[in-house]
Amino acid sequence: xxxxxxxxxxxxxxxxxxxxxxxxxxxxxxxVFAGAEVPVRNHNDYSGLPVSPPGGLVRPADTAGVALTLxxxxxxxxxxxxxxxxxxxxxxxxxxAQQLALSLERLVGIEExxxxxATMTVLAGTxxxxxxxxxxxxxxxxxxDLGARGSCAIGGNLATNAGGNRVIRYGMARDMxxxxxxxxxxxxxxxxxxxMIKNNAGFDLKHLFIGSEGTLGVITRVVLRLFxxxxxxxxxxxxxxxxxxxxxxxxxxxRRMGPLLSAFEVMWPAYWQFATTRVAGVRNxxxxxxxxxxxxxxxxxxxxxxxxxxxxxxxxxxxxxEAGAVSxxxxxxxxxxxxxxxxxxxxxxxxxxxxxxxxxxxxGLPVARMDDYVSRCRQALQARIxxxxxxxxxxxxxxxxxxxxxxxGVAEQPKSLVDGIVYGLVREYGGTVxxxxxxxxxxRPWLGHARSPAEIALMQTLKQALDPRxxxxxxxxx
Length: 478
What we know:
By secondary structure, the chain is an alpha+beta fold. The chain is globular and about 70 Å long. The protein has helices at 3-27, 63-76, 128-137, 154-159, 167-170, 206-209, 243-257, 269-278, 306-323, 335-345, 351-354, 370-384, 415-428, 453-466; strands at 32-34, 56-58, 80-83, 100-103, 110-114, 119-123, 140-141, 177-183, 189-192, 218-225, 227-228, 232-240, 261-267, 295-303, 328-331, 359-364, 388-395, 400-407.
């Protein structure tokens, strides 16, 4: 390292030390930690990247504390990395040794549930599961749902524009937000806790920050739309002969179920076989049927009348069976069945026990071309990577495909090679390199596969306008 580089590094370290000292005096010792004092949980997210302990950690108790922190960081030019539940998969919440991690874990709580407007105002550090439970207790439904519900924070869900299982009916996280409070990189607070669905008074600024992964501002409070609590859940596991059958089933479900259709999850045969035979606690809902099928589909409908909804769903399924459109099917008859059916789809949470250090991908593709992509991607991976295990599944109703790749018997997975194959084909098919997980640092080199140079230039313009010193979550997304 040159002497000038050493001097620059020393200056940053000195600025960080001064920042930590100042914040400790202003926010209290219980809110600020330095070096080895930083808890291990704040050293990394779920991206699988190497552990990266931040130089310091601040845990403000309110929006004013977040604003003060960002204002001091801007004054000293110290980079700050927002952290929520740390369940992100793309490295967006990892801070470096000369950066300050800003955790929202103390900004928790439901501030208000307004039955008249069907909204909830909640602090950004509140776990998603807490939001779901509070909505249910008030007689409402928060449809945003993902596997990390017990750990992920609602602010992080919005910062990454999380998707989950019910996008086909309720949309992405951004579709559930009416208002936000955000702290800008210079410490300014923008409070727009709007409760109205119709509000066309100028630019809808909340969409600048939803999905920006903490690069443009830090979300501190949220107004969420709530929905009527479903009175019935109908769930079926269907086996179909091929992908044409998947598309026909999707079309039929949309036409016959209409707005009740809430999930349409597809599992390709290799994934189904792996989940039902190698993952502990997962059973085959199609009991006694070990025949190979072209695809397996989990269809969920949420309704308002248990008796009518069940009869309608069962009649729809019977018609499909009689017509030969579905090779076999099982309909959930109890809550235990519902959990067992979803366990097959949710077996991904246990894949690390069978496929350690596996590579996971979250891409978006035109629905009609998805199976063709799967076929070509599998062939390319298996041709280039000996002993490759390739598993495909996803929320096909909304164009989201997940891919698992694992090479057995190697010390390190061939990430660069796999990335090139997976994302190269995504670009060829006109898809996106990220359907619901964000970009962070892991997907940053591939952003140009899904966004045009003009789009990326506009992103850079927005970043420069709001954060000219590059203080907030630098190096992420763009």
